[in-house]
Amino acid sequence: MTTILIETHKVFEGEQRKYRHYSETLDCDMVFSLFLPKQMDNMLTDLVWWLSGLTCTDDNFSQKGAFQKYASHHQLAVVMPDTSPRGTNVADDENWDLGQGAGFYLNATQEPWAKNYRMYDYLTKELPELVYTLIPNFSGKESIMGHSMGGHGALVIGLKNPERYRSISAFAPILNPSQVPWGKKAFTAYLGSDEKAWAAWDATSLIAETAIAPSILISQGTADAFYEVQLNEEAFLQVADGKKVNYEKLVGYDHSYFTIASFIEEHLQFHKDYLK
Amino acid sequence: MTTILIETHKVFEGEQRKYRHYSETLDCDMVFSLFLPKQMDNMLTDLVWWLSGLTCTDDNFSQKGAFQKYASHHQLAVVMPDTSPRGTNVADDENWDLGQGAGFYLNATQEPWAKNYRMYDYLTKELPELVYTLIPNFSGKESIMGHSMGGHGALVIGLKNPERYRSISAFAPILNPSQVPWGKKAFTAYLGSDEKAWAAWDATSLIAETAIAPSILISQGTADAFYEVQLNEEAFLQVADGKKVNYEKLVGYDHSYFTIASFIEEHLQFHKDYLK
Which keywords does UniProt give here (chains A, B) (predicted)? Predict the structure, then answer.
């Protein structure tokens, strides 16, 4: 059970690190990235989780997210897990929207996925215990955010654990996976064709049922090619009535990391407001 | 002679574009990226050239440079050319530090390189004429910057054309290629083994000989693994005496784009000071 630091770069006076470890939950070696801000005197460090989208690894946000300046400023550590279990012994699919790189942040129940595809348990039990030990002066306070499939993940994990995460934010999240092509395909494969099992992993079902939800910020680009078919917000906003949800449309912005980079300052300020 | 817009993304209210065109100078199809800031009332747009390092394309800086916020703020267009001619009909080498991705921003005289490897002419004659037409309200004012091999390129192009570029900046530039392994290998291949031909493409020789040099800012990370062997500054600073050169060491920073992202605000502010 060793955790190995395999890369580190100084950035905005903090450190962008990459670690490898063996995950018991996923039964494979995993890599994750961790940004640690420069330790400022007498300040505790809060933790923000970033969950990436389909096909991504821990690298996409660390390299293209342009978040380090603001995480340094707000004394935030940011952890970037991978998007699925990985390796030659891990089940996979030839398509990019299923299998490795497309874990959907759930616990699979169907073969051949059930053995390794337990990203929910990994992200809520095993990885936090490890990450907490890597943050000097950790405040114990956490928020969660993500993009696309990772926005779905952030909402599902945050809504299932409202006492743990102070706030949730998402760029272009899959808000209602049970009803859209990406989600139907993944849920059928990982959870089976009985749709009753899907509701536990669908942000729209979860926010309708929960009594308490963390504050939520969602940013959606209007020029996002996936917006209408995969990312529609209507059902979610209808049942989210009464919860603290700020849904903003970004006119002319698309599904890329250029959008994330443009608005990451706003998202980290949102989280800091709830973490402090 | 058509120029095709193949990609565009809104970012920080501006546009990150990618174009393809046929270059007569290089005798192959080329791709370049161009950031255009949001047009502000009554403001002219200045142009900054970014030249990337070995193995890079136009994508590295556009995706990892985190420059768009500051370029938007200062009303700067930024053009990102590729690092060499490309294509199956273009000479190449099996090593990453020669051939495609490693053009060294010069005009080659030796076979098999002389036909296509004319990056200096491409960047100072053909591409500017094209780029000027793509910038609304262009001021006619230009500066140039780059990283590593691209820092060498920015210094060489800037020092050969001091009337054209208002300022030059570089991250971790190859300051004296005639004396270091990367440069010796490339210059021998592209220019031949007679070292007299090398001086015209070496920033240290050029700054020693020029009467007038644009203002220069150079940032070098002290944790850069290439620093001692490839990027040493001593000879350059010795002969640069009397020119406006600000050479700064960045303690703990390495050769990666994390360093560039951390200090790009300072570099663009430096250029804006000379462009306005």
Answer: Hydrolase, Serine esterase
